[in-house]
Amino acid sequence: xxxxxxxxxxxxxxxxxxxxxxxxxxxxxxxxxxxxxxxxxxxxxxxxxxxxxxxxxxxxxxxxxxxxxxxxxxxxxxxxxxxxxxxxxxxxxxxxxxxxxxxxxxxxxxxxxxxxxxxxxxxxxxxxxxxxxxxxxxxxxxxxxxxxxxxxxxxx
Length: 156
Known about the structure:
alpha+beta, two-stranded antiparallel ribbon, nuclease, signal, 2 helices, Guanine-specific ribonuclease N1 and T1
């Protein structure tokens, strides 16, 4: 009987175990605050964009977060429209967001509403959206629901 398959399996199990140990934090120094730009690039990639050096804000959803002040200007304008109750530039703004992707916290149907955030250079609605919840929660996606970040406002 060849020992090669057994060695390969053992090496695989050992590598998975060691990877798990190294990502568990095990007394590592806390991470330094990350400098991000309004466009989400690292500070080293920034080309004159405003930066936020403070530690990342924390939300209640468990999703990554972004400060409202760090959103693109078009998203901040959409937030202002939502706060005023419209009028909205797109017919689908304010429509129920069903959370089919199940990335946002699960709530009953009708809990979430979606709003378009204009994308410069796009002829259609583009991929950027603000999604709000009945309890005041706000989420941002710039990739058409592939990922979300919870928006942290001064009131949070």
